[in-house]
Amino acid sequence: MNPARYKPTRLKTRATPGGVRDIFLIIVIVIGVVVVAVRLAQLQIVQGRFYSQLAGGQHDLFDKLLPERGQILVRERDSDSLYPVATNIDLWTAYSDNRNSFNATDEAKTLAPFLVSPVDSKDKTPDQIKAEVQQNLADKEAELLKRLSVALAAYEPLGRDLAKSVADGIRALGFANVNFAPEKARFYPESGFSGQLLGFVGFKNDAKIGLYGLEGYWDKELSGTPGFLSASKDPSGNIIASADGSLKEKVDGSDIVLTVDRTLEATVCDKLKAAVEFHKAQSGSVVMMDPKTGAILAMCGAPDFDPNAYNRVDDANVFNNGAIWNAYEPGSVMKAVTMAAALDTGVLTPNTTYDDTGSMKFGSQVINNSDHAVLGTQTMIEVLDKSLNTGAIFAMQLTGMDKYESYLKAFGFGVRTGIELDTESPGNLSSLKSHRPVDAASASFGQGITATTLQLAVAYAAIANGGKVMKPYIVDSIVHPDGTVVKTEPRTVRQVISDRAAGLLTGMLVSVVKNGHGKRAAVPGYLVAGKTGTAQIPKSDGTGYDADPHATIGTFAGFAPVSDPRFVMIVRLDRPKDVQFAESSAAPLFGDIASFALKYLEVAPDDTH
């Protein structure tokens, strides 16, 4: 054998079935280790925050998911401090986890005294109160038994808005199935601050929502955005770790800062309430506005309600803000608007005269002066001083019906002002669509058309502001959760009359306070411009007016000081029982509030000598 030619041969073998299985098993184990490693990384790194929140306890989780409602705040004059007029306090919701074992009947009986609503004892005898307490307890016990009997329910609410003392009392009972969730509740700390302006937070379809006023109009911004929890659950309802787990945190609501002045608002509301009570009036409203910007300085209605106890209100109509909701026939305060149109068109001057015969006839209908006086030759100044219906009709006729209607619309009547509040009424100018002379004549002195207190404030503010109509606003700024601030800027809607016409009319309105029916609206040391209005109230069936001499609405509309108006104010009193005319009801209230406001705003007295 030649060693050089010798080559060892490689033995060929066949793989056994057991060897293939071993290789496959190794591959599966490697893949499994990789999957577990990836999942651990996902849980610990990507979703670690989610599960740490779950581990932090239910309180932390609720805090991450439930947004806090924004506050409503006000300032005082020249103060950087903000005062909350709507804020939040910590309360509790009690709920049952019915997956636990317990005696529903015994628990319902024990829990009922803690969760039953208190009885309103007003106008009730002791026996009536006792009977109502017993009935309420029985009703609450039955309600709780029904909730505690819902099989396997993980969350069955038993009571909401519970104070800490109540929650602690229930906790002391030691019921294993009863748990508590923290809850923010709305609270209104300023006693006497307008409930109609603020509105309240109530329930709608078992959800908390802002209703009426600022709370209703700004509910979306105040509410914020709830967080979102997504996770898998086991058959018992417990959250388990899974790839689907995620937590999106809440976004708290924005804070709203108002234009109203804290001191002015409280004082105006107090004085209005006192006047309504003194005159035994059915209701009243006041709007005070900065004529240069349109910012609302105060807005009040009476009777009002406490938003902390809105559920104790007997008549839901009290929730509506009377200054923007209750449109009415304003009466003679409209004569100033009629005169504004005539002065602006140039068809007359303050010294233009006409012959007052005491009445005017339109077909079969006769319109008289309110006092049925016949005064002969009168100037337009005297028309406002003496509040002559015939003089207002004369001015409207010179202006022309169609042009007069266009001025009413340009002043802002017949449409909503756009104020940032719920339940605003547009008023009504529909009577003018008939194009009948009698309807235009009635409108010239404030009959047959309706307006709100706020619309009158906007119109008189235009007179005080050189003829410029400003858009009214009540929100000074919105402060978002991230700290950004959106500021409201004053906006001129239109120039409705010339500066010259506004100046001439202002002089005429000063004469009304000095020489006419507005004397009791005067403030010593200051020039005040304004006009009274005593309006009849239409019958409920829509035919004619109520014959009761006290079925009137007294209004005073004016501004001060004339040299540099700091505010325009409309005062309205409905159905005063002791006096008939506005010069004895609304005018004195205007003077009282104006006197305080001028001093509070530190306005120097006019040189009236």
What is the CATH superfamily of the domain at 259-306 and 322-600? DD-peptidase/beta-lactamase superfamily
Q: What is the class of the domain at 259-306 and 322-600 in the CATH system?
A: Alpha Beta
Helix content: 25-40%
Distance between the termini: 150 Å
Query: Quick check: average pLDDT?
Result: 88
Please count the beta strands (DSSP E, at least 2 residues each).
24
Q: What fraction of residues sit in β-strands?
A: 15-25%
CATH fold field value of the domain at 259-306 and 322-600 = Beta-lactamase
Descriptors for this entry?
single chain; 609 residues; alpha+beta; Beta-lactamase; seven-stranded mixed sheet; five-stranded antiparallel sheet; 22% strand; elongated; disordered N terminus
